[in-house]
Amino acid sequence: MNKVIITDHPLIQHKLTLMRMEETGSKDFRELLTEITMLMGYEVTKDLPLGEIEITTPVQKTTAKILKGKKLAIVPILRAGIGMVDGFVNLIPAAKVGHIGLYRDPVTCEPVEYYCKLPEDIGDREIFLVDPMLATGGSATAAIQLLKEKGANNIRMINLVAAPEGIEAVHAAYPEVDIYVAAVDEKLDDHKYIVPGLGDAGDRLFGTK
Ligand code: URA
């Protein structure tokens, strides 16, 4: 309950510093995010259950370990979450990918769903919900609620950078969702950007600024 796992491997921290730098362009930003996602993926998948199967090597028959737990689904929150899909799919090619699109209503400031396409058997899958930035927690909690409405009950959230406010919001609503993060930053500013953060992750990924 209320678990936050900070993946502070030196390679992750070094690459995150490069991502934070304003002079880092979209190509490098994208590649760094994929590399960090793969490194975080090692930690996120550390407790996946293993079984054994009989195989034949070129030398002899043997038993060998194989993943045996629930099937996985990677679910990015659009649009910046897309930047974390390749890293996970490189590690777990059999995982299915769902997408959740949310925008913030300019009047109510509440997240509004505009797209949702999930694997049909989402309820039977272990879900990795990905979004580089966990700021207010509004999109994250809305995405988790949506996933639960569709039958999902096994969700972990993976972010690159989180604000304390976002972690608190997610865990106030869903204490059972473990949060994996490369860094917990200081706070949110008046525009709800993470400080010091790395700016708008979507704009930096897709060069839309
Ligand atoms: N989303 C971003 O992309 N950056 C922030 O700092 C906060 C939310």
UniProtKB/TrEMBL annotation:
Pfam families: UPRTase (PF14681)
Name of protein: Uracil phosphoribosyltransferase
Record's keyword terms, sorted: Allosteric enzyme, Glycosyltransferase, GTP-binding, Magnesium, Nucleotide-binding, Transferase
Gene name of the encoded protein: upp
Modes of activity regulation: Allosterically activated by GTP.
Pathway: Pyrimidine metabolism; UMP biosynthesis via salvage pathway; UMP from uracil: step 1/1
Record-listed uracil binding positions: 194, 199-201
Domain of life according to the entry: Bacteria
InterPro entries assigned to the protein according to its UniProt record, in alphabetical order: PRTase-like (IPR029057), PRTase_dom (IPR000836), Upp_B (IPR034332), UPRT (IPR005765), UPRTase/APRTase (IPR050054)
Any one GO molecular-function label of the UniProt entry: magnesium ion binding
CC terms in the record's Gene Ontology section: cytoplasm
Function: Catalyzes the conversion of uracil and 5-phospho-alpha-D-ribose 1-diphosphate (PRPP) to UMP and diphosphate.
Entry's cofactor comment: Binds 1 Mg(2+) ion per subunit. The magnesium is bound as Mg-PRPP.
Species whose genome carries this gene: Peptostreptococcus anaerobius 653-L
E.C. designation(s): 2.4.2.9
Cofactor annotation: Mg(2+)
